[in-house]
Amino acid sequence: MRKPENIKKKNRSIPVIEGNNELKLRVRRIIRLLKTEFPEAKTALIFSNPLQLLISTILSAQCTDERVNKVTPLLFRKYKTARDFANANLMELESIIKSTGFYRMKARNIIQTCRLLVNRFNGKVPKNMDDLLSLPGVGRKTANCVLGGAYGIQSGFVVDTHVKRISKRLGLTKNDDPKKIEMDLISIIPRKEWYNMSNLMILHGRKTCRARNPLCDRCILAPLCPSAFSFSKLR
Known about the structure:
By secondary structure, this protein is mainly α. Helix content is about 50%, strand content about 0%.
């Protein structure tokens, strides 16, 4: 891991008033550093096709990717197509996904979503935001994850809890609403980087910029972060 250089407890390298051009330059430096730290950034969810990524992302709500990955091998052996999920027995599906939490709601959403996929989209996962958002249990975060991860389409940012936290700490947004955070990020980050940067920030949040006791002394972004070393130890 590359070590941050010349870090001081109070970061003086960022101007008190930062113009849009200065902000965009800082963002480009942030992207370069994160790419150095995580050269093969990608979603932690394990999938083989767009349908599997869609189902996995629905299951990941209020659940860790690690837990989802423990459930999906059996799930995807039993249900291979959208039609399989559409015809699934609700109680059997609930039993398989129970450990992901909110399993009753997730099971209903998965069955209803796959019925729509069969009836409206020939069993295929759509490649545009509006169609994805018409599916039960699918919001912008899920849609952006599917479009970026399955199709390579730069539709927006995957704003999860890590992206929200890091965006605020880096001074890239002042908002709390995920959609507003996404709009702030896409206004300063090059489109070609949207999906990759989402994954970079998620990985950075898991490894270094933690919610409690962030590891600022080990953080490659510390010289570029207005929040560096501003956290008291949390018990």
